[in-house]
Each structure stands twice: as C-alpha cells, then as structure tokens.
Amino acid sequence: MKILKQNIILVLILILWFIASESHICSSYVLPSPQRVIRAFYIEVMNGNLIKNIYVSLLRVVIGFSIAFIFAFIFGMILGVRAERFEYFRNIIEFMRNVPPISLIAILILWFGIGEKPKIIIIVLAAFFPIFINIRQAICSADKKLIEVGKSFGFSKLKIFFYIVLPNALPSILAGMKIGLGYSFRAIIGAEMIAASSGLGYMILDSQQLSRSDKVIAGIITIGLLGYLFDILFSYIIKKLPYSKGVYIEN
Known about the structure:
The chain is built from 10 helices and no strands. With 251 residues, the chain is mainly α. Helix 7 (144-152) packs antiparallel against helix 8.
C-alpha cells in the first residue's frame, strides 16, 4: 500500500504524458513521446556520453560538497562554542546566504576562467550555508542540564564537547549535510549549463541547442534519479550511524 501511495502520481503523469504524445495534443518537438526519451537515454548510455557526463558532474559535486563541509564544520564549531563571536559575521553571512550562487558565475569566470574552479566554488557556496547554520545552531542549543551534569562529574571542557555537545549536535549536522547535498546537485547543473564543456548541465544545454528535446528530458530525468538515489543512500547511512535518532528522514 505504501509503495502504491508513493508511485501513483508518477504513474498518472506517465499515462498522461503517453496520451498527450500519442494524440498529438502537443508537438513532438515540444513534448517527445516516452518511447523517444527512452530511446535517447539508451543511445546515450550505449555510446558512453551519459556515463561520462554523470561521472564529471558527480566528481564536481563530491569535491565541492567535501570542501563546503570541512569549512562549515570548522566555522560552525568555532562560532557555536563562542556564540558571541557570531555577531561579527552575522551580516556578511546573511547577505551571502541570500545571494544565489549561480548569480556569481559571471564574475567567477572573469576571475578564474572557465575551468573547474568556478563550478567547484559555486557548489561550495551552495552547500556551505545550510551545513554551517545547522552546525552552529546545534552547538549553541546544547542541553545546558547535560553540560552541568558533565561538570559535576569533573569532565574537562574538551570531554564535555566530545561526550555531550557533539553527540547532541550530530542529528542537526547530518540533517544539514543532507540539505547541503541537495543544494550541491542544483548548483552544479546550473553552473554546467553556463560554463562547461562536459557534465549533465552541459548535456542538457547542448541538446536544447540541437533541438533534441528527447535528450533534454532524458538528462533531466537522469539528474532527478541521481539526486534521489544519493538521498536514499545518505538517509541509509544516517540511520546506521550512532546518535542519529531525531534526524528528519523522508521515506
């Protein structure tokens, strides 16, 4: 029953898509049939183009997300433990958090060219803020009563941090990482559509310029599937980690 609820809307969309394409309600140029999209997907897999573009995009996401997590973890911990210092950075953080990373691609190309650096920076900026905010807030909101209990047992500040504060913050850290990973996928596709010669974003833009709407839809479906699979994988890892109770995971 649960599987039916989760997939009924998808099945209805596919049926409506098939009916619309077969009855020629929409031009095949605007809305190719599901058969054409599947054929385009198969051809791209067999000639290796799709696998190559997936690999390039995933590599960029992994590198950018890893850098974002390292910086977010360091600054989140520092400004979480020393909450009063956050006031020095509040305005610039709020400003940058509300600037869409993709809007910076033009200036980044001017500074770094059209190589890998602009794309990685875009991913870092997209993933950094949700991770940082979750980490800082989790550290700041550590249970004061538990900290007092630790002090009463003679725990040092370092021991309190690693045995009480960090485990208490882990669910929020993992939730922030999950959100940041989703933002990373959105950012890289946008960056690749503007300044790239490979990747899924480039594949979609190139197909659009060649009037291959079937390949465009195949690329969009690939992005959605990749993001969904990574979300499932990340949720599974979260469930297996200690202290992960309380992390919001959609099933």
